[in-house]
Each structure stands twice: as structure tokens, then as C-alpha cells.
Amino acid sequence: MNLLSPTAWLEALAGVDPAPFFGLSLLPYLAFLWWSWRSGRMPRLAFWGFCLTLLFVAVTIAAAILAERGYGRQLADVDPLHGGAELFLTLSNVLVLLGFSRAPAKDEQ
């Protein structure tokens, strides 16, 4: 097997379990939230929108477990659960958008 070939490289990459990376990605996101809170430079509404993204992740995990155990399907295949979870992402995005759109421009301060 030639490790330099694209096919071999992609096959090796496909064998990597992504779960630890999802858990590790929480650390820089929490650091971002901490910095945002401490700096006081981010509009509060946008900050709470970014915090709501964590709730979206938690709700999505719970909905995925419920879809798997209750319906024997993936979350994407159970529309009410999938839509309900995605609602939290939409709400967080709207709060971020409103927070930054209502923030005064640097020239106005």
C-alpha cells in the first residue's frame, strides 16, 4: 500500500474516529466565549446567540439519541426531531445577527 497515493490517504483518514475531535472542539469554543465575555467588546445579544449554539449542540445530541433509540433511525431521518433541533441553531443565528446589526459602528462610538 502506497501511503502517498490519494486513495490510501483517504482510506486511512476514513478510519479515524471523529468523536474525540468533536469533544476537543468544545475547548476553543469555550475559550472564545470566555474571551468574548471578558473583553466586553461583543454585543451582548450576539454573545447570548453564541451561547445558545451550545444549547443547540446539547439538544441535537439528545434528539439524535432519541431518534436512534425511539425510532431506530438517524436524526436526519426523523423530521420532527431534526427540525426541532435545528430550531435552536436558527435562534442562535438570529440572535448573533441581531446583536451585530444593532451594535453601533466604530465610527459612531
Largest sheet: none
Order of helices and strands: HHHHH
The secondary-structure class comes to mainly alpha
Q: What integer is the average pLDDT?
A: 90
The rounded Rg comes to 19 Å
Distance between the termini: 62 Å
Beta-strand portion reads under 5%
**Which spans have pLDDT < 50 for at least 5 consecutive residues?**
none
Number of helices: 5
Number of strands: 0
- The percent of residues in helical segments reads over 70%
Gross morphology? extended
3D structure, described in words:
This protein has 109 residues and is an all-alpha fold. It has a domain at 44-104. 74% of the residues lie in helices and 0% in strands. It is built from five helices and no strands. The chain has helices at residues 6-14, 19-24, 26-39, 44-71, 79-102. The mean pLDDT is 90.
Keywords, please?
109 residues, mainly alpha
In short:
The chain has five helices and no strands.
SSE topology sketch:
Elements: H1 6-14, H2 19-24, H3 26-39, H4 44-71, H5 79-102
Helix pairs in contact: 4-5
